[in-house]
Protein backbone atom coordinates (compact mmCIF):
# COMPACT_ATOMS: atom_id res chain seq x y z
CA UNK A 1 0.00 0.00 0.00
CA UNK A 2 2.39 2.63 1.15
CA UNK A 3 6.14 3.06 1.43
CA UNK A 4 6.45 -0.38 3.06
CA UNK A 5 3.16 -1.81 1.88
CA UNK A 6 2.00 -2.39 5.47
CA UNK A 7 -1.23 -0.81 6.73
CA UNK A 8 -1.69 -0.15 10.41
CA UNK A 9 -4.04 1.64 12.75
CA UNK A 10 -7.23 1.78 10.71
CA UNK A 11 -9.67 4.27 12.16
CA UNK A 12 -12.65 1.93 12.30
CA UNK A 13 -13.68 -1.63 11.55
CA UNK A 14 -13.93 -2.85 7.98
CA UNK A 15 -17.17 -2.95 6.07
CA UNK A 16 -19.21 -6.12 5.88
CA UNK A 17 -17.96 -6.74 2.33
CA UNK A 18 -17.02 -10.41 2.02
CA UNK A 19 -13.32 -10.68 1.13
CA UNK A 20 -12.58 -13.53 -1.22
CA UNK A 21 -9.56 -14.99 -2.96
CA UNK A 22 -9.26 -14.43 -6.67
CA UNK A 23 -6.76 -14.53 -9.50
CA UNK A 24 -5.87 -11.72 -11.88
CA UNK A 25 -3.78 -11.39 -15.03
CA UNK A 26 -1.41 -8.46 -15.48
CA UNK A 27 -2.66 -6.42 -18.42
CA UNK A 28 -0.34 -3.41 -18.26
CA UNK A 29 2.77 -2.35 -16.34
CA UNK A 30 3.69 1.36 -16.43
CA UNK A 31 6.65 2.96 -14.64
CA UNK A 32 5.56 6.08 -12.76
CA UNK A 33 9.02 6.72 -11.32
CA UNK A 34 12.29 4.77 -11.22
CA UNK A 35 10.94 2.65 -8.35
CA UNK A 36 7.15 2.90 -8.60
CA UNK A 37 4.80 1.21 -11.05
CA UNK A 38 1.11 1.31 -11.90
CA UNK A 39 -0.05 -2.24 -12.55
CA UNK A 40 -3.36 -2.82 -14.30
CA UNK A 41 -4.99 -6.22 -13.77
CA UNK A 42 -7.93 -8.16 -15.21
CA UNK A 43 -9.81 -10.64 -13.03
CA UNK A 44 -9.59 -14.22 -14.26
CA UNK A 45 -13.22 -15.29 -14.17
CA UNK A 46 -16.68 -14.01 -14.95
CA UNK A 47 -17.56 -12.02 -11.83
CA UNK A 48 -16.84 -8.24 -11.73
CA UNK A 49 -14.58 -7.16 -8.89
CA UNK A 50 -16.77 -5.41 -6.32
CA UNK A 51 -14.99 -2.88 -4.10
CA UNK A 52 -15.43 0.65 -2.78
CA UNK A 53 -13.14 3.48 -3.83
CA UNK A 54 -10.37 3.74 -1.23
CA UNK A 55 -10.27 0.07 -0.22
CA UNK A 56 -7.30 -2.28 -0.51
CA UNK A 57 -6.54 -5.87 -1.40
CA UNK A 58 -3.80 -8.28 -0.38
CA UNK A 59 -1.37 -9.92 -2.81
CA UNK A 60 -0.53 -13.55 -2.03
CA UNK A 61 2.89 -14.66 -3.27
CA UNK A 62 4.39 -18.11 -2.69
CA UNK A 63 7.94 -18.05 -1.34
CA UNK A 64 9.15 -21.61 -0.91
CA UNK A 65 6.65 -23.32 1.38
CA UNK A 66 5.33 -20.01 2.76
CA UNK A 67 2.73 -17.57 1.44
CA UNK A 68 3.78 -13.93 1.76
CA UNK A 69 0.81 -11.53 2.08
CA UNK A 70 1.14 -7.81 1.37
CA UNK A 71 -1.71 -5.25 1.24
CA UNK A 72 -1.94 -2.66 -1.54
CA UNK A 73 -4.46 0.14 -2.01
CA UNK A 74 -6.48 0.03 -5.21
CA UNK A 75 -5.53 3.06 -7.31
CA UNK A 76 -8.46 2.92 -9.73
CA UNK A 77 -12.19 3.56 -9.25
CA UNK A 78 -14.80 0.79 -9.29
CA UNK A 79 -15.67 -0.10 -12.88
CA UNK A 80 -18.27 -2.22 -14.60
CA UNK A 81 -15.63 -4.63 -15.81
CA UNK A 82 -12.98 -7.00 -14.50
CA UNK A 83 -10.11 -4.53 -14.11
CA UNK A 84 -8.34 -2.75 -11.26
CA UNK A 85 -5.03 -0.94 -10.77
CA UNK A 86 -2.37 -1.04 -8.07
CA UNK A 87 0.36 1.50 -7.34
CA UNK A 88 3.39 -0.43 -6.08
CA UNK A 89 6.63 1.01 -4.77
CA UNK A 90 9.70 -1.22 -4.79
CA UNK A 91 10.82 -1.81 -1.23
CA UNK A 92 14.55 -2.42 -0.79
CA UNK A 93 14.87 -6.06 0.19
CA UNK A 94 11.11 -6.56 -0.13
CA UNK A 95 10.35 -9.77 -1.98
CA UNK A 96 6.69 -9.20 -2.83
CA UNK A 97 6.93 -5.61 -4.11
CA UNK A 98 9.88 -6.45 -6.34
CA UNK A 99 8.25 -9.67 -7.51
CA UNK A 100 5.12 -7.83 -8.62
CA UNK A 101 7.01 -4.96 -10.22
CA UNK A 102 9.11 -7.43 -12.23
CA UNK A 103 6.15 -9.44 -13.55
CA UNK A 104 5.68 -9.51 -17.28
CA UNK A 105 2.39 -8.68 -18.94
CA UNK A 106 0.02 -11.70 -19.01
CA UNK A 107 1.50 -13.07 -15.77
CA UNK A 108 -1.03 -14.21 -13.18
CA UNK A 109 -1.10 -13.46 -9.46
CA UNK A 110 -3.38 -14.30 -6.52
CA UNK A 111 -5.16 -11.73 -4.37
CA UNK A 112 -7.68 -11.54 -1.56
CA UNK A 113 -10.08 -8.75 -0.65
CA UNK A 114 -11.40 -6.13 -0.68
CA UNK A 115 -10.77 -4.74 2.79
CA UNK A 116 -10.93 -1.39 4.54
CA UNK A 117 -13.11 1.49 5.67
CA UNK A 118 -11.02 4.31 4.20
CA UNK A 119 -13.82 5.49 1.91
CA UNK A 120 -15.68 8.75 1.34
CA UNK A 121 -18.55 9.26 3.76
CA UNK A 122 -21.91 9.46 2.01
CA UNK A 123 -23.83 11.61 1.45
CA UNK A 124 -21.29 14.36 0.80
CA UNK A 125 -22.61 17.15 2.99
CA UNK A 126 -19.55 19.38 3.26
CA UNK A 127 -16.22 20.17 1.60
CA UNK A 128 -13.57 17.45 1.28
CA UNK A 129 -9.84 17.78 2.00
CA UNK A 130 -7.46 14.99 1.03
CA UNK A 131 -3.88 14.86 2.33
CA UNK A 132 -1.47 12.24 1.01
CA UNK A 133 2.23 11.53 0.73
CA UNK A 134 3.99 9.11 -1.62
CA UNK A 135 1.98 6.06 -2.62
CA UNK A 136 -0.61 7.11 -0.06
CA UNK A 137 -2.14 8.98 -2.97
CA UNK A 138 -3.27 5.70 -4.58
CA UNK A 139 -6.57 5.30 -2.66
CA UNK A 140 -7.17 9.05 -3.01
CA UNK A 141 -6.90 8.74 -6.79
CA UNK A 142 -9.47 5.94 -6.62
CA UNK A 143 -11.84 8.11 -4.56
CA UNK A 144 -11.49 11.20 -6.75
CA UNK A 145 -11.93 9.35 -10.03
CA UNK A 146 -14.99 7.67 -8.57
CA UNK A 147 -16.48 10.96 -7.34
CA UNK A 148 -16.01 12.66 -10.69
CA UNK A 149 -17.31 9.67 -12.66
CA UNK A 150 -20.75 9.85 -11.07
CA UNK A 151 -23.59 11.54 -12.89
CA UNK A 152 -24.44 13.74 -9.91
CA UNK A 153 -22.46 16.98 -10.02
CA UNK A 154 -20.20 17.57 -7.01
CA UNK A 155 -21.42 20.76 -5.33
CA UNK A 156 -18.81 21.02 -2.55
CA UNK A 157 -15.18 22.07 -2.88
CA UNK A 158 -12.56 19.30 -2.95
CA UNK A 159 -8.88 19.92 -2.24
CA UNK A 160 -5.93 17.53 -2.54
CA UNK A 161 -2.64 18.25 -0.77
CA UNK A 162 -0.07 15.81 -2.17
CA UNK A 163 3.38 15.82 -0.62
CA UNK A 164 6.60 14.31 -2.01
CA UNK A 165 10.32 14.90 -1.61
CA UNK A 166 11.06 15.62 -5.26
CA UNK A 167 8.77 16.89 -8.01
CA UNK A 168 9.32 13.80 -10.19
CA UNK A 169 7.69 11.77 -7.41
CA UNK A 170 4.28 13.38 -7.96
CA UNK A 171 2.46 10.19 -8.92
CA UNK A 172 -0.55 10.61 -11.25
CA UNK A 173 0.21 14.32 -11.55
CA UNK A 174 -1.39 14.54 -14.99
CA UNK A 175 -4.61 13.00 -13.68
CA UNK A 176 -4.90 15.54 -10.88
CA UNK A 177 -4.01 18.47 -13.13
CA UNK A 178 -6.66 17.32 -15.61
CA UNK A 179 -9.24 17.18 -12.82
CA UNK A 180 -8.33 20.71 -11.80
CA UNK A 181 -8.77 21.97 -15.39
CA UNK A 182 -12.11 20.25 -15.93
CA UNK A 183 -13.68 20.36 -12.46
CA UNK A 184 -14.05 23.88 -11.02
CA UNK A 185 -14.69 22.43 -7.56
CA UNK A 186 -11.32 20.61 -7.44
CA UNK A 187 -8.10 22.19 -6.20
CA UNK A 188 -4.75 20.39 -6.50
CA UNK A 189 -1.90 21.51 -4.24
CA UNK A 190 1.32 19.54 -4.91
CA UNK A 191 3.90 20.11 -2.17
CA UNK A 192 7.63 19.38 -2.61
CA UNK A 193 9.91 19.24 0.43
CA UNK A 194 13.20 19.18 -1.51
CA UNK A 195 12.51 21.40 -4.52
CA UNK A 196 14.88 22.07 -7.38
CA UNK A 197 15.45 25.56 -8.68
CA UNK A 198 12.83 24.94 -11.38
CA UNK A 199 9.98 24.16 -8.96
CA UNK A 200 7.45 26.99 -8.71
CA UNK A 201 4.82 25.32 -6.56
CA UNK A 202 4.32 24.93 -2.81
CA UNK A 203 7.26 23.78 -0.71
CA UNK A 204 7.63 22.23 2.71
CA UNK A 205 5.11 19.65 3.88
CA UNK A 206 1.39 19.08 3.51
CA UNK A 207 0.96 20.15 7.14
CA UNK A 208 2.35 23.60 6.28
CA UNK A 209 -0.06 24.08 3.39
CA UNK A 210 -2.99 22.77 5.43
CA UNK A 211 -2.36 25.41 8.07
CA UNK A 212 -1.81 28.09 5.44
CA UNK A 213 -5.02 27.47 3.48
CA UNK A 214 -7.46 25.99 5.99
CA UNK A 215 -6.57 27.33 9.44
CA UNK A 216 -9.68 28.38 11.33
CA UNK A 217 -12.03 26.32 9.17
CA UNK A 218 -14.16 23.36 10.27
CA UNK A 219 -16.44 23.06 7.24
CA UNK A 220 -14.84 19.94 5.77
CA UNK A 221 -14.12 16.26 6.16
CA UNK A 222 -10.48 15.20 5.96
CA UNK A 223 -9.03 12.03 4.42
CA UNK A 224 -5.40 11.43 5.32
CA UNK A 225 -3.13 8.70 3.90
CA UNK A 226 0.61 8.11 4.11
CA UNK A 227 3.37 7.28 6.57
CA UNK A 228 2.52 7.13 10.25
CA UNK A 229 4.38 10.31 11.27
CA UNK A 230 2.56 12.49 8.74
CA UNK A 231 -0.85 10.98 9.43
CA UNK A 232 -0.49 11.35 13.19
CA UNK A 233 0.68 14.95 12.92
CA UNK A 234 -2.12 15.93 10.54
CA UNK A 235 -4.72 14.27 12.78
CA UNK A 236 -3.41 16.24 15.75
CA UNK A 237 -3.56 19.49 13.79
CA UNK A 238 -7.11 18.81 12.62
CA UNK A 239 -8.32 17.82 16.07
CA UNK A 240 -6.39 20.11 18.39
CA UNK A 241 -5.87 23.22 16.27
CA UNK A 242 -8.84 23.18 13.91
CA UNK A 243 -11.34 21.55 16.26
CA UNK A 244 -12.64 18.89 13.86
CA UNK A 245 -14.71 16.08 15.39
CA UNK A 246 -13.55 12.48 15.13
CA UNK A 247 -16.16 11.64 12.50
CA UNK A 248 -14.74 14.38 10.25
CA UNK A 249 -11.36 12.62 9.99
CA UNK A 250 -10.68 9.36 8.17
CA UNK A 251 -7.17 8.00 7.80
CA UNK A 252 -5.00 5.15 6.58
CA UNK A 253 -1.40 4.99 7.73
CA UNK A 254 1.58 2.88 6.77
CA UNK A 255 4.65 1.81 8.72
Compile the SSE list and pairings.
Layout: E1 7-8, E2 20-31, E3 36-43, E4 56-63, E5 66-73, E6 83-89, H1 95-101, E7 108-115, E8 127-133, H2 137-149, E9 158-164, H3 173-182, E10 186-192, E11 202-203, H4 206-214, E12 220-227, H5 228-241, E13 249-254
Parallel strand pairs: 8-9, 8-12, 9-10, 10-11, 12-13
Antiparallel strand pairs: 1-13, 2-3, 2-7, 3-6, 4-5, 4-7
Give structural notes.
- By secondary structure, the chain is of the alpha/beta class.
- It is 21% helix and 35% strand.
- The protein has a seven-stranded mixed beta sheet with strand order 1-13-12-8-9-10-11, sandwiched between helices. Strands 5-4-7-2-3-6 form a six-stranded antiparallel beta sheet, covered by helices on one side.
- α3 (173-182) links the parallel β9 (158-164) and β10 (186-192).
- The longest helix has 14 residues, at 228-241.
**What does the radius of gyration come to?**
18 Å
Strand order within the widest beta sheet: 1-13-12-8-9-10-11
* Inertia-based shape: globular
Category by helix and strand content:
alpha/beta
- Count helical runs: 5
| H/E series | EEEEEEHEEHEHEEHEHE
> What percentage of residues falls in helices of 4 or more residues?
10-25%
Head-to-tail CA distance between termini: 10 Å
Low-confidence runs: 1-16
Major sheet: size, sense and barrel closure?
A: 7 strands, mixed
- Count of distinct strands: 13
Please indicate the percent range of residues in DSSP E strands (runs of 2 or more). Answer: 35-45%
Mean pLDDT: 91
